[in-house]
Amino acid sequence: MAYKFVDNYREKGARKKLVEILKERGISDAKVLRAIGKVPRHFFFDETFWNQAYRDIAFPIGDGQTISQPYTVAYQTELLHIQKGDKVLEIGTGSGYQTCVLMELGANVYTIERQENLYARTIKVLPGMGYQANFFLGDGSKGIEAHAPYAKIIVTAGAPFVPEILLKQLRIGGILVIPVGDEKSQKMITVIRVSENEYDRIELDTFRFVPLVGDQAW
Ligand code: SAM
User: Fold this and answer.
1) What pLDDT shows up at residue 66?
2) Domain 9-207, CATH among 3.30.870.10, 3.40.50.620, 3.30.420.40, 3.40.50.150
3) Best substitution site from 68, 73, 93, 178 to test ligand 1's pocket, by max atoms within 8 Å of Cβ?
4) pLDDT of residue 1
5) What residues form DSSP beta bridges with 151?
6) What CA–CA distance (Å, rounded) separates 162 from 144?
7) Which reactions does this protein catalyse (predicted)?
8) Ligand 1 centre from 177 Cα, in Å?
9) Any residues with CB less than 8 A from the CB of 118 and at least 6 apart, and which?
10) Largest Cα–Cα distance of the chain, in whole Å?
11) Mean pLDDT by 10 residues, the chain (218 residues)
12) Which atom of ligand 1 lies nearest, measured to the CA of 141?
């Protein structure tokens, strides 16, 4: 992977086009589109593949890892309704692209990854790009109790069920966004914590994520 942070007119232009594509696909939140328009996605790719960075596709970027499809990132981010200063727990840091989008929206991001090589890479790459998130290595299916409650929780891997322990780490009024299903397809679920013991659950579109692996997962 190249860490040459060069954002030239070609990449800026491609990023603008990506934003237009996401609008056509139904992403309507102007703040989310602006954030996607700001994060240099090609920084997560080897320079050889910069011409792929602004296509609306997931892409392998080494170490058995895939950077999420921009549409999926935008879709989950829209559901979170991020407000400036929101404390957000992201489970599944992966490349760190989603982390950067959340930070562009003003979130204070706590992000956890179970794979050490990915964790080691993002703790170098993101601060190098100017994104100072709070990075953790471990099993995020249990959340991070020590920093709870969170205004928002986003899970970027497919879970077999909604872990109860994550619901308990939401503040009242907080939102959890999590794909739930089997290994082939998952429904995007949002859960809003309405009161101490009440939750509203909404089931949305179908996606395909890599599995959430851990204690409260596969
Ligand atoms: N949103 C990321 C991006 O923008 O590149 C992509 C995330 S990738 C689809 C899902 C990530 O979740 C993988 O990196 C995987 O290792 C991680 N993961 C799976 N189970 C996990 C767990 N229990 N705790 C933390 N991370 C986990």
Assistant:
1) 84
2) 3.40.50.150
3) 93
4) 46
5) none
6) 15
7) [protein]-L-isoaspartate + S-adenosyl-L-methionine = [protein]-L-isoaspartate alpha-methyl ester + S-adenosyl-L-homocysteine
8) 14
9) 63, 65, 93, 94, 95
10) 51
11) 73 97 98 98 92 95 82 98 98 97 98 95 95 98 98 98 98 98 97 98 96 96
12) 23
- Enumerate the domain spans of the chain: 9-207
For position 6, what pLDDT does the model report?
A: 87
Tokens of residue 202, six digits: 């909404």
Indicate the top mutation candidate among 213, 215, 216, 218 to test ligand 1's pocket, ranked by most ligand atoms within 8 A of CB.
213
**Interface confidence (ipTM) of the complex:** 0.99
pLDDT score recorded for residue 218 = 96
**Residue 2, pLDDT score:** 44
